[in-house]
């Protein structure tokens, strides 16, 4: 009997203690505790890997701090390549020419007389609004011509081809803006890779002349176009203020509107668009850049 009374009293005491604890108000400091916010990790190098250089009136680190969006620190640094506040003046020129005379291919093509050439001039001006980041303006003038004076193919007595006096010429003007981001590869600021995004607008004209049944046909085309291009590249400083760079197109979007006439008669017009998702061998640019 005594044990039953004892267990009953212990159970009643535990119930009363639990009710009192539940009725108490939690601490106000616990209720208004601010939530925990995870900040993005800023990737900075260890002191033994970092150095400082003088840029104008400031002393800056040669390693640019970057946000690490991944889980792992791979130890890759973006070294200072071109500091904030510098101007860059660039110039890219290209020229190509081909000539063929009296060529024979497997005794089928007896006479080929072809010559063609193309050249382009591309001056640029850019300003570095931040370390390794620049925005700029580019002008582009391109002109080309090709002439097929004779082309004779003799397969047999009943099948032969004779083309002569065919000419083609074109020229275009473009103006665009671009953004370029450099990634420095070494502390000495000699080598870097970059990625460029450019938006270009331009116009051009072309002329295609050929004979058909003894009648000269002169077709002229005028075009207006817009391009959005993504071009990675490599840049090397040959001297302290002179750099050599090469870039190539890997992706682009194009919009074009064309109008065509033949012998003064309107043939019509068309609007076209397209995208390029592959390496473009015809969009490789070599140039020099002066940084001041």
Secondary-structure element order, as H and E?
Answer: HHEEEEEEEEEEEEEE
Mean pLDDT figure:
79
- Total domain count: 2
Overall morphology:
elongated
What is the CATH class designation of the largest domain? Mainly Beta
Going by helix content, strand content and strand pairing, the class is: mainly beta
Strand order of the largest sheet: 5-6-7-8-9-10-11-14
The percent range for strand residues is over 45%
Largest sheet descriptor? 8 strands, antiparallel, barrel
List keywords for this structure.
single chain; 292 residues; Porin; 2 domains; 8-stranded antiparallel beta barrel; two-stranded antiparallel ribbon; 64% strand
Describe this structure in words.
- It is elongated and about 80 Å long.
- It has two domains: 2-31; 78-291, Porin, CATH 2.40.160.
- The strands form three sheets. It has an eight-stranded antiparallel barrel. The protein has a two-stranded antiparallel ribbon with strand order 1-4.
- By secondary structure, it is mostly beta strands.
- 9% of the residues lie in helices and 64% in strands.
- The chain is built from two helices and 14 strands.
Draw up the topology in text:
Elements: H1 2-23, H2 28-31, E1 41-43, E2 52-55, E3 58-61, E4 66-68, E5 87-101, E6 109-130, E7 133-154, E8 160-184, E9 191-212, E10 215-237, E11 242-249, E12 251-262, E13 265-276, E14 280-291
């Amino acid at each position: 009997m005594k044990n039953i009374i004892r267990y009953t009293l212990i159970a009643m005491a535990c119930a009363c203690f639990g009710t009192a604890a539940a009725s108490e108000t939690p601490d106000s400091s616990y209720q208004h505790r601010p939530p925990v916010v995870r900040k993005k990790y800023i990737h900075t190098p260890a002191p033994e890997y970092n150095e400082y250089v003088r840029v104008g009136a400031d002393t800056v680190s040669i390693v640019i701090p970057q946000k690490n969006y991944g889980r792992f620190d791979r130890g890759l640094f973006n070294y200072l390549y071109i500091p904030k506040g510098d101007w860059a003046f660039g110039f890219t020129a290209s020229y190509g020419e081909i000539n063929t005379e009296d060529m024979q291919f497997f005794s089928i093509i007896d006479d080929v007389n072809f010559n063609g050439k193309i050249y382009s001039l591309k001056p640029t001006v850019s300003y570095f609004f931040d370390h390794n980041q620049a925005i700029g303006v580019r002008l582009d003038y391109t002109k080309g011509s090709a002439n097929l004076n004779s082309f004779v193919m003799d397969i047999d007595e009943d099948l032969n081809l004779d083309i002569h006096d065919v000419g083609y010429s074109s020229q275009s003007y473009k103006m665009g803006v671009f953004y370029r981001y450099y990634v420095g590869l070494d502390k000495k600021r000699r080598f870097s890779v970059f990625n460029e995004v450019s938006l270009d607008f331009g116009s051009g004209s072309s002329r295609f002349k050929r004979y058909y049944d003894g009648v000269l046909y002169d077709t002229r085309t005028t075009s207006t176009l817009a391009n959005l291009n993504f071009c990675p590249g490599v840049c090397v400083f040959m001297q302290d203020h002179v750099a050599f760079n090469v870039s190539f197109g890997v992706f682009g979007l194009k919009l074009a509107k064309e109008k065509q006439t033949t012998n003064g008669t309107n043939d019509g017009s068309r609007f076209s668009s397209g995208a390029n998702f592959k390496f473009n061998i015809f969009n490789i640019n070599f140039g020099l850049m002066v940084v001041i």
